[in-house]
Amino acid sequence: MIGILALLTRIFSNPYSNVIQKRLGQKGFKSLWISFFAYFLLSLFCAIPSFFIDWARFDFVFWQNVILAGIVGAFGNWFLVEALKCGELSVLGPINSYKSIISVIFAFLLLGEIPAYLQFLGIFLIIFGSYFIFDGSGEKISSKIFLRRDIKFRLLALVFTALEAVFIKKIILMSDILTSFVLWCFFSAIFSFVILVVLKSKIVANFYISIKRNLKGFLTLCLCMFLMQFSTNIVFEKMNVSCALALFQLSSLLSVFFGWRYFSEKNLKRKILGTIIMILGSIVVILF
């Protein structure tokens, strides 16, 4: 029962967090800043529970996975927010189905999960469903579509978040749900800050503006990210990465609906049809 509740929470909280991220992006906030400030607030909330964790029991391999998860997670969320700023939620949400293909590759390389021949059918369904998604947004699917700014950033986000999922699964297996969540917040904040410094973003100015005018939006984003990641960790604890990511694809339907509801995006029916086909393809890729 807890696993089902966690799955439903993950399916809803992920696309709604994208809504908040897109809104903040439309207000002029840089993608890196949105990512860092959200992780920073989550880290503040995690300060108290961190004192009750026995950090000395973890070995070098554990911390290696934590660092790698933090790095790829920071980049993944940055690319995701950048994509949401310039793209349609009802298009970028369903594109998440490509994550199934990427996750299979990473799960095979890093976890030893062997893909099956039927997964080629799933890949075909994902590509076929993409036709309806892009056609619904006024474009025909071709190799050039993947050179579009929002699609490029979304695909980069898929690569990094799929890899992050594998590392988080490892961290959970070596610790527990609470520890993995606290570390996810801390190290995602750290590496998001590092990226900000390297790119010389105006951190102090952005911090003041965020606190003054948009604290409610960032707090809502933090709540969504907390629900999303904590429920994700629960699901990961109870099933393998591939199966979990396949079920997570159901959130794509909500992304299409939210894009229509909050941002007046068009061609809802075609996008829903394409999303359903892509979800089926994703499930075939992951589960077979």
Give a written overview of the molecule.
It is globular and about 50 Å long. The protein contains 14 helices and no strands. Helix 1 packs antiparallel against helix 11, helix 6 packs parallel to helix 14 and helix 9 packs across helix 11. Helix content is 80%, strand content 0%. 51% of the residues are buried. With 288 residues, it is an all-alpha fold.
How would you concisely characterize the structure shown here?
The chain contains 14 helices and no strands. With 288 residues, it is mostly helical. Helix 1 (2-26) runs parallel beside helix 13 (251-263) and helix 2 runs antiparallel to helix 9.
Broad shape: globular
DSSP strand count: 0
Q: Largest sheet at a glance?
A: none
Low-confidence stretches: none
Q: End-to-end distance, in Å?
A: 25 Å
Q: Helix content range of the residues, please? A: over 70%
What's the gyration radius in Å? 18 Å
Question: What brief labels describe this structure?
Answer:
single chain; mainly alpha; 0% strand; globular
Sequence-ordered SSE layout with sheet pairings:
Blueprint: H1 2-26, H2 31-45, H3 47-50, H4 60-86, H5 89-92, H6 98-111, H7 119-136, H8 149-174, H9 177-198, H10 203-213, H11 215-238, H12 241-248, H13 251-263, H14 268-287
Helix pairs in contact: 1-4, 1-11, 1-13, 2-4, 2-9, 2-11, 4-8, 4-9, 6-8, 6-12, 6-14, 7-14, 9-11, 12-14, 13-14
